[in-house]
Amino acid sequence: MTDDVLDYSRPGPFTSLDAAQLPLIEGLPDDPVGICAAVQSLVIQPTDVAASGISEDRIAEKNIRPVNELVTVLTALDPAPLHQDRTPETRVVGTCRQVLVNKTVRAALSEAGDLTLCCPRGRRFTYTGAAAAMWVALCEYRGHVEPAAERLAFEWMAHPPTIRAEMEALVASWRDLGLVTE
Predict the structure, then answer these.
(1) Alpha helix (H) residue ranges in the chain
(2) Which of 89, 140, 155, 179 has the maximal Cβ count within 10 Å?
(3) Using an 8 Å Cβ cutoff, are 99 and 138 in contact?
(4) Of 89, 73, 97, which is closest to residue 24 (Cα–Cα)?
């Protein structure tokens, strides 16, 4: 398995924007930590919908995966550029499923592909290579370990059960650290 097969510095099928949406990203931070912070004012968790007075009809938004579709829904609610904070009712409903990322964990992916997971009490965990790719794939597949592992196995030309076992072990360690829950 090689660590440099997945290039997260380039948009992929779930992370591309439409050309007309590109002006919306002007003003966004250009560092991973800043982007993570900005995104948190654009998305609301399904568990917070009712308390925020948002219609239950919007819960289906949590199933939208491609970023360009998320941005379309988001800008239909509020056409402001993405660097501007939004009130809860003008955020898109979004989530990870199966393995749920702890809401207080902040993830940052460096240009080199290193992943730093930050907890509110200042604890930081840094992962490189395969572990970083597994976190990203897990998020892309909304916490579903099996399809995330299958994708990585395909990309890495590796045996799927081996990658799945490695990913499950890593998820178990993240669970022990309180970074994810089930």
Answers:
(1) 32-39, 67-77, 129-140, 145-156, 160-177
(2) 179
(3) yes
(4) 73
Same domain, 89 and 104: no
Residues of the chain falling short of pLDDT 70: 1-14, 31-33, 36, 95-101, 182
Q: How far apart are CA 116 and CA 128, in angstroms?
A: 9
Question: What are φ and ψ of residue 106, in 5° steps?
Answer: -110, 130
Residues in the chain: 182
Domain end residue (candidates: 93, 116, 132) = 93
Task: Please provide the distance, in angstroms rounded to a whole number, between the alpha carbons at the two ends of the chain.
Answer: 28
Total number of domains constituting the chain: 2
To which residue do tokens 């002006």 refer?
23
Phi, psi of 117 (to 5 degrees): -105, 125
